[in-house]
Amino acid sequence: MKVDHITPHSLARLNAALLDIRPGMRLLDFAVGYAGTWVAVAKRLHDQGENPNSVYFVGQDVSPKVLLVATCHLMLHGITSFQLQTGDALTDPQTDASRFDRVVADPTFGLHITARNDNWRYDPRFLAARTPPRSAEWLFMMHGLSVLAPGGRAVFITIHGPLFRSGSEREIRKFYANWLTAVVALPRALYPGTSLAVALTVFDRPADHSSAENDVLMINASQLRAKDGRHNILSSEVIDRLAKLVVSGSDEELPAIHEFVDQARLADNDHSWQPSRYVYEPAPYVRSLEDIRSDLAAAQKTAQQAASAMKAALDALE
């Protein structure tokens, strides 16, 4: 994670809600940065009456300076049950053969692999792709999924490219199709300095070796933004509703932005995971010309009445 790539606070809170962490679990963030998601997880546990240090946090980042800030950030919030390691998660993973109940990551966007590591062809983390993709998004996600325990959940933030690109990335999507639980398309401009649209993918690794096909919850939340100065954010209400939607599969307050998509339909759409392919943005409300004329006439009448009242008041002063 680069220093200038910081997970926005509202996204960290959404991550924490979707992870559904419980005491005794192990959580990995291999692009931990300043540990904002961990702090959001800890606060959520505290609000639920649980001890945040009942979860063991494991993190990795390429920058020692960033990890120093992360350590201070965690300590200031009373989080002591953690381990931080320096290194590149792709070339120098620090997790070995460990398994984690939860995995979360918000890696740097648009990182391209200019010189492929020949060893990646035989790396068990990347066997879902016959040829490792040049774009790093799926390499990061495959790394995280490779250490996810059976029955565990992973949540990743990514740009939209990995959700629809062809070639090796399509093969990866086919490979992990039965792990995918939900994809949430989020509003643009959630990150300072960029108007990129991002998506959130939720994976649940089957607890056994079942090959049963599952439906995928597609959520198009691209319009559910609130303003915070020049930036967009996710409101607390939207965060709670999106989390409820993923957990329960329904929300009477958000009926028009989600749809369950079966694996056959995904295959018919070239295994695209873009929610906009399945859930269309509702058409904006267009007022009729008759309604506009009626409102204008009413406004003109109100203005005339106000002008008459003002004239009468001025006449009375003379």
Automatic annotation (TrEMBL):
EC number: 2.1.1.72
Keyword Methyltransferase on entry: yes
MF (Gene Ontology): DNA binding; N-methyltransferase activity; site-specific DNA-methyltransferase (adenine-specific) activity
Main EC class the enzyme belongs to: transferase
Highest taxon in the source lineage: Bacteria
Gene3D superfamilies: Vaccinia Virus protein VP39 (3.40.50.150)
InterPro entries linked to this entry: DNA_Adenine_Mtase, DNA_methylase_A-5, SAM-dependent_MTases_sf
Keywords recorded for this protein, A-Z: Methyltransferase, Plasmid, Restriction system, S-adenosyl-L-methionine, Transferase
Catalytic activity field: a 2'-deoxyadenosine in DNA + S-adenosyl-L-methionine = an N(6)-methyl-2'-deoxyadenosine in DNA + S-adenosyl-L-homocysteine + H(+)
GO biological process: DNA restriction-modification system; methylation
SUPFAM superfamilies on file: S-adenosyl-L-methionine-dependent methyltransferases
Domain DNA methylase adenine-specific: 7-280
Name of the protein in its database record: site-specific DNA-methyltransferase (adenine-specific)
Species assigned in the record: Deinococcus psychrotolerans
